[in-house]
Amino acid sequence: MVSSNMFLLTQALKSVFTDPQLTDETNNKTGPAFTDLDRMEDFWQYMTDVASPGFYTEQWYNTENVSEYGYILFENRLLGAVQIRQKKVRNNSCLVADDFKQEIKFCYNSYAPAYEDTDTFGPCENLNASNCTYDAFKYTPSTSWFGLSTTGQVSVYDQGGFTMTFGSSSTVFATEIDQLYQGLWIQRGTRAVLVDFTIYNANLNLFCQVQLLFEFPAVGGLITSSTFRAVKLLRYVQTFDYFVLGCEILFVIFIIYYTIEEILEIRNFKLAYFKSIMNCLDIIIILLSYVCIVFNIYRQVQVNLLLDALLQNDQTQYNDFSFLCYWQYQFNIIISITIFLAWIKVFKYISFNKTMTQLSETLAKCARDISGFAIMFFIIFFAYAQLGYLTFGIQVESFRAFQYSVYTLFLIILGIFDFQSLQQAHRVLGPLFFLTYVFFVFFVLLNMFLAIINDTYVEVKAELRNKKNEFEISDFVKQGYTKMRERLTVKRDRIADIRRALALADLNRDKRLEFDEWRTEMKSRGYAEEEIETIFAKYDLNGDRVLDENEQRALSNDLLRQNDAILREIDELNMSKKNNMPVDNVDEDNERSKSAASQRLQAHEVSVEEYNELAKRLDTMETSVGFVLTKIDNVASKLDAYEKPKNKTNKKGRPSDSRNTTDEMNMESFDE
């Protein structure tokens, strides 16, 4: 919707209509530019010396005539004619003080629709509008359904007025300007003259609606302003434009989806949904998006309807593109606000990190203190604004109205000020106003504001230091790394297990592995029948249900290659993690890597000889344990045998012999 070419287009048009300076005919020196025009005579000189050659590019730089007329700067097609329009107020639209009624017979108020003059004047004075042949001297009401008001520096001007369209050549234009000049077209009641035209640049597919406003305030003089609206009304022309159309359709689908999602959330959470600022932001973005969607469709339909009707008109008529260009410009503003809010919404998705919540936590904690401080600040601030407006508003431009006084005081806080103008306005109050304002507002209040935020920030930072993140981005990476490593480890262990099964399955050591031997060993390790059959059949090339020495070697080599490939993947995964890890975690990761490497070396598979040696040791340990268990059983049997005589002795009343017998039994058991 917006591109740098729009800026270049407006700058090119400004270089033609607002940047050139007039020539002072009294001393043949450089005069004012468009923005510096201040007299009624300057208007006529501007229209003759600047506007006329700007509207009509009729010759090349070598004075040869161009082949086609109606272009500005050779590239920008003028759509229709240039229109000039005057807004007047009638006499006696204001009241003259009784003391001056005898001397002053005329009174022209500032412009307002209620004071507008619609009577014919000049050559058509005292004639009906239907009998007047001069369009510029008879009032023409607005015929546009979509008429827009024009806001100037002095007043707001609606559609209609004393209107005239210029011819299609510089000669005709100069003649018509001279007729207006000789007919005293601009009079005491004139309050504004508006010059409107629209151009189209086919190279960039851009329209630009231009309006030059000349205001003649009730105090006299001249105030100028200009409006350049470069917009893209024909949206879908090039291939990239249709790609944008596809993106817009996708955008509509997303908005519909998120609308349904938000409706379901509102239905579930009721009013609690609106307690979250981010939820409210989602609703605002969705509503603005729907406004953009509706206007985009409406604009496309209206452009197709109005553009055909406007371009079918005669080139001597004015084609009003102001409505389309104005609302397209507003549409761009709405889109920019939507995108701005969408960027703010990014905080919603990074709020799980405690570092990213410092801004929101700080603002939330100091909100109450700032609210109380703001009341005190604005009391003093608006007091100074009112004082500046009432004291210096007559002489200093930056204090000419209360709102401008507020802007000026904000600029002083930022270090932008004009001390000399205040001193010239009043040599005592000016410096006193400036110094006291800087002291109380800048040195005291502003530093109090910063101190509140700074103290709250320190407090929030201390709290967040001991707070655990809800979820770290690094955690997500580590989880993916861990899962990948686990999968590779499982594959490696499985291959190692199959290699061990291959080494142990040949029980008779005849270097011929029969299927029953393979199946028995693999079954003991928990493999399924289908998997056992699949692995065996893959390497049983002759189909005799026996793996000879070559077939076993092929199986072993394949398992070894797969194991090496997995080890390389694990090493690459470790290197990738190490490269993406923060510097302060590298040492810790190195220690973990060394530990994991040592564990991996310890868990390395053993050879057949080592396995047999370990099996013998295990058998020896089992024999020793069995011998110990036999001894324990013997001790238990003797204890049972001695238990019966002890009971008989106790019954006959010989405790001492019983005690001696028990001691002897214990000593014998201890010796055994």
Automatic annotation (TrEMBL):
<feature type="region of interest" description="Disordered">
    <location>
        <begin position="638"/>
        <end position="672"/>
    </location>
</feature>
<dbReference type="Pfam" id="PF08016">
    <property type="entry name" value="PKD_channel"/>
</dbReference>
<dbReference type="GO" id="GO:0050982">
    <property type="term" value="P:detection of mechanical stimulus"/>
</dbReference>
<dbReference type="GO" id="GO:0005929">
    <property type="term" value="C:cilium"/>
</dbReference>
<keyword id="KW-0406">Ion transport</keyword>
<feature type="transmembrane region" description="Helical">
    <location>
        <begin position="242"/>
        <end position="260"/>
    </location>
</feature>
<dbReference type="Pfam" id="PF20519">
    <property type="entry name" value="Polycystin_dom"/>
</dbReference>
<keyword id="KW-0107">Calcium channel</keyword>
<keyword id="KW-0109">Calcium transport</keyword>
<feature type="transmembrane region" description="Helical">
    <location>
        <begin position="432"/>
        <end position="453"/>
    </location>
</feature>
<feature type="transmembrane region" description="Helical">
    <location>
        <begin position="370"/>
        <end position="389"/>
    </location>
</feature>
<feature type="binding site">
    <location>
        <position position="551"/>
    </location>
    <ligand>
        <name>Ca(2+)</name>
    </ligand>
</feature>
<feature type="transmembrane region" description="Helical">
    <location>
        <begin position="272"/>
        <end position="298"/>
    </location>
</feature>
<keyword id="KW-0479">Metal-binding</keyword>
<keyword id="KW-1015">Disulfide bond</keyword>
<keyword id="KW-0407">Ion channel</keyword>
<keyword id="KW-0966">Cell projection</keyword>
<dbReference type="InterPro" id="IPR018247">
    <property type="entry name" value="EF_Hand_1_Ca_BS"/>
</dbReference>
<keyword id="KW-0812">Transmembrane</keyword>
<keyword id="KW-0968">Cytoplasmic vesicle</keyword>
<dbReference type="GO" id="GO:0005509">
    <property type="term" value="F:calcium ion binding"/>
</dbReference>
<feature type="transmembrane region" description="Helical">
    <location>
        <begin position="329"/>
        <end position="350"/>
    </location>
</feature>
<feature type="region of interest" description="Disordered">
    <location>
        <begin position="578"/>
        <end position="606"/>
    </location>
</feature>
<keyword id="KW-0106">Calcium</keyword>
<feature type="disulfide bond">
    <location>
        <begin position="94"/>
        <end position="107"/>
    </location>
</feature>
<keyword id="KW-1133">Transmembrane helix</keyword>
<feature type="binding site">
    <location>
        <position position="544"/>
    </location>
    <ligand>
        <name>Ca(2+)</name>
    </ligand>
</feature>
<dbReference type="GO" id="GO:0005262">
    <property type="term" value="F:calcium channel activity"/>
</dbReference>
<dbReference type="GO" id="GO:0005886">
    <property type="term" value="C:plasma membrane"/>
</dbReference>
<keyword id="KW-0325">Glycoprotein</keyword>
<dbReference type="InterPro" id="IPR003915">
    <property type="entry name" value="PKD_2"/>
</dbReference>
<dbReference type="InterPro" id="IPR002048">
    <property type="entry name" value="EF_hand_dom"/>
</dbReference>
<keyword id="KW-0813">Transport</keyword>
<dbReference type="InterPro" id="IPR051223">
    <property type="entry name" value="Polycystin"/>
</dbReference>
<comment type="similarity">
    <text>Belongs to the polycystin family.</text>
</comment>
<dbReference type="InterPro" id="IPR011992">
    <property type="entry name" value="EF-hand-dom_pair"/>
</dbReference>
<dbReference type="InterPro" id="IPR013122">
    <property type="entry name" value="PKD1_2_channel"/>
</dbReference>
<dbReference type="InterPro" id="IPR046791">
    <property type="entry name" value="Polycystin_dom"/>
</dbReference>
<protein>
    <recommendedName>
        <fullName>EF-hand domain-containing protein</fullName>
    </recommendedName>
</protein>
<feature type="transmembrane region" description="Helical">
    <location>
        <begin position="401"/>
        <end position="420"/>
    </location>
</feature>
<feature type="binding site">
    <location>
        <position position="540"/>
    </location>
    <ligand>
        <name>Ca(2+)</name>
    </ligand>
</feature>
<keyword id="KW-0472">Membrane</keyword>
